[in-house]
UniProtKB/TrEMBL annotation:
InterPro entries documented for this protein: Mur-like_cat_sf, Mur_ligase_C, Mur_ligase_C_dom_sf, Mur_ligase_cen, Mur_ligase_N, MurE/MurF_N, UDP-N-AcMur-Glu-dNH2Pim_ligase
Protein modification: Carboxylation is probably crucial for Mg(2+) binding and, consequently, for the gamma-phosphate positioning of ATP.
Boundaries of every Mur ligase central domain copy: 109-312
Name used for this protein in its record: UDP-N-acetylmuramyl-tripeptide synthetase
Length: 491
């Protein structure tokens, strides 16, 4: 792209040195820099790009964008000083890739829990309707059938624009993005023109990063503020009005609010819910009237997720009558209350619950479908070097199961016993044991079971590793459970 054309997007800037005619690419990670490129110095959470501009120059960057003066050879290169490099990168990336989000229909899903489930539901329904889609989640973006791996749930502002550009080039119509609070607060979504913003719920998590629930809640609010005040294109905020934060987000945006609820009056509402071991049924009240919903997704939390997905597609013109039959054939989301196929008289679910609220919802989901004879045995683990305040609360919520086994889930460099005793502080009853080794914990849960019982292994879902120290070791909750079931229930 012509350098002068690209730089027009920055109003306030000081340009020093020699500008090249063309810029071939934009970077913020010096390791990826290519020839004839522009490098933006970003002060990140752990590293400061201003320390790497020399590496970038060596690799062929010709223009450096920084927030202060730097020593560079101005005969051959240019330095551009801007007040805020993060905002500058968002504008440069958007301009360089020709504003891809304006040409795509973009759904953003935020909330403490349920993001992956809601994005998957929207994505799967659109696919069944033969739409071209891309979905961005915990590990990357799936564009049509091609997977691009990224480092975080919400990747950086540049990668976001690159992937959106790619999606546009591949003919994608709809992009569904999981939007994390960290991503929002670090400006990684800035410049993305969302069409529909979805709020699932807000409960305690990530306080190591945000410090207070207010900060955490407001960080999520950025998504709704970002829907903007431009009334020329229709924008929608899909809000769970059983969570009090919905009012704040409604206040943050001028977009039309589409509410959903189980317990109060809302535009999309679920009533008469029936929970079974493998299915859930409810009556949907929507602007198109009443429909019976049958779904393979279990628990009340998935009723919320289903309402959110249906409302999001409805506002984009899909009729509820078309969507309802699609839900019937939908398989469960991998690792989210996923029933493991075992030939045994017990029911085993693996689940990704790793917040107090998710644990509570998980216990509730099983309690709603089981009979009084059946015991709920729950394996619960939490990660090391992450939000420690949630640990006793996770224990407290897990206490509602009949038997609880507290274990680790990626201890990293923390002492496993310390993690377990932190969770133990919240336990309300004497119905638990502490087994640091996750494999042993799963083994014990199955050994303790009696025919008819229900075992939930929470925290990892389908993740295929365990982080101990700085190393990732292969691990699979599902395989360990299947192995142990064969031993405990040989016939
Ligand atoms: N709407 C919800 N409310 C509360 N808990 C939920 C909800 N949806 C899912 N969960 C719980 O959170 C876990 C993670 O769900 P997921 O959809 O992966 O959320 P996220 O992507 O936000 O982490 C699930 O395994 C389940 O235990
Ligand atoms: Mg997720």
């Amino acid at each position: 792209m012509k350098t002068t054309e690209l730089l027009e997007c920055l109003k306030i800037k000081q340009v020093i040195g020699h500008l090249p005619n063309q810029i071939k690419s934009i970077h913020h990670d010096s390791r990826n820099v290519q020839n004839k490129s522009l490098f933006v110095c970003i002060s990140g959470f752990t590293v400061d790009g201003h320390d790497y501009y020399r590496d970038a120059l060596k690799k062929g960057a010709r223009v450096i964008v920084a927030n202060r003066s730097l020593t560079i050879d101005l005969e051959k290169n240019a330095l551009i000083i801007v007040p805020d490099t993060i905002k500058a990168l968002a504008k440069l990336a958007n301009t360089f890739y020709h504003f891809p989000s304006n040409k795509l229909n973009i759904f953003g899903v935020t909330g403490t829990n349920g993001k992956t489930t809601v994005t998957s539901l929207i994505h799967d329904m659109l696919r069944k309707l033969n739409q071209k889609t891309a979905v961005a989640g915990t590990n990357g973006m799936l564009i049509n059938k091609h997977y691009f791996q990224t480092a975080n749930t919400t990747c950086d502002v540049l990668t976001n624009q690159q992937l959106l550009h790619r999606a546009y080039q591949e003919g994608v119509d709809h992009v569904i993005m999981e939007v994390s609070s960290q991503g929002l607060s670090q400006g990684r979504l800035s410049g993305i023109n969302f069409d529909v913003a979805v709020f699932t719920n807000l409960s305690q998590d990530h306080l190591d990063y945000h410090h207070t629930m207010e900060n955490y809640g407001y960080a999520k609010g950025i998504l709704f503020a970002q829907l903007g005040n431009d009334m020329t294109s229709p924008k929608y905020a899909v809000l769970n009005c059983d969570d009090p934060w919905w009012k704040t987000y409604n206040y943050f945006t001028s977009a039309e609010a589409i509410t959903y609820s189980i317990y109060t009056d809302a535009i999309f509402r679920a009533t008469n819910i029936n929970y079974h071991t493998d299915t859930t049924e409810f009556t949907l009240q929507s602007p198109e009237g009443k429909h019976l919903i049958q779904s393979n997704l279990l628990g009340e939390f998935n009723v919320y997720n289903t309402l959110a997905a249906l409302a999001s597609l409805y506002v984009k013109g899909y009729s509820i009558t078309t969507l309802v039959p699609l839900l019937r054939g939908m398989s469960t989301i991998k690792g989210r209350m996923e029933r493991i196929n075992v030939e045994a008289p017990v029911t085993i679910y693996i689940d990704y619950a790793h917040t107090p609220d998710a644990i509570e919802k998980c216990v509730h989901a099983v309690r709603s479908s089981k009979n009084s004879e059946q015991q709920l045995i729950m394996v619960v683990g939490t990660g090391g070097e992450r939000d420690k305040e949630k640990r006793p609360l996770m224990g407290e919520k897990a206490s509602q199961a009949d038997t609880v086994i507290l274990t680790i889930n990626d201890p990293r460099n923390e002492d496993s016993n310390k993690i377990l005793t932190d969770m133990e502080k919240g336990m309300l009853h004497n119905n638990y044991s502490l087994i640091p080794d996750r494999k042993q914990a799963i083994k014990q849960a199955i050994q303790l079971s009696k025919p008819g019982d229900i075992i939930v292994i929470a925290g990892k879902g389908r993740e295929n590793y365990q982080i101990i120290g700085d190393k990732k070791y292969p691990h699979s909750d599902a395989s360990l459970a299947i192995e142990q079931v064969k031993i405990t229930y040989p016939d």
